[in-house]
Amino acid sequence: MDHLKMAVAKIDAHHPNVLLVEKSVSRYAQEYLLAKNISLVLNIKRPLLERIARCSGAQIVPSIDNLSAPKLGYCDSFHVEKFLEDLGTAGQGGKKLTKTLMFFEGLLKGASGDELKKVKHIVHYGVFAAYHLALETSFLADEGASLPELPLRSPIKVALPDNLSSIDRSISMIPGYSAPSFEKPQAQKTAQQFITK
């Protein structure tokens, strides 16, 4: 009993309003927490506990012994509501089933509305560019296009193989596939010839 009182005193020293626990808690400890006006939620699955901790900014403490300086989470409000199921399912004796849901409100916070609009605008154009890059790459691969042989003009030296095959220059989405070239050798021009003319 003294150990439980000390454990509850350690918890109460951080002044939490709600305590979420993965498994169960001793009945005596529950009564001590109730006397300190600390709400207790039992049997929360670990993935859900981690998700709530991530959204609220809390630190999951595996034991009371590790409670020296925990990072407490924050939310604007916490409440519990019961709902009756209206799906026509009835429990034993024809009673309607009820579900109890917990609500943590005000968990996610961000910058001002103007900054979020700018971020949304940037993300919108990033997705647009990525989508069209995929479309253009697919189109060029369907047309049998390959990358030109341009000399590298970079101060960084890269060891390249002496003999590049057409497979190495292919932009095909299928690994190892290169579209056959049907042009006559004298009609082929490199990208360097087009640039110098």
UniProtKB/TrEMBL annotation:
Transmembrane parts of this sequence: none
Pfam families cross-referenced by the UniProt entry: Cpn60_TCP1 (PF00118)
SUPFAM superfamilies: GroEL apical domain-like
Entry superkingdom: Eukaryota
GO cellular component entries: endosome membrane
A GO MF label: 1-phosphatidylinositol-3-phosphate 5-kinase activity
Biological processes per GO annotation: phosphatidylinositol phosphate biosynthetic process
Name of the protein described by the UniProt record: 1-phosphatidylinositol-3-phosphate 5-kinase FAB1A
Organism: Sesamum radiatum (Black benniseed)
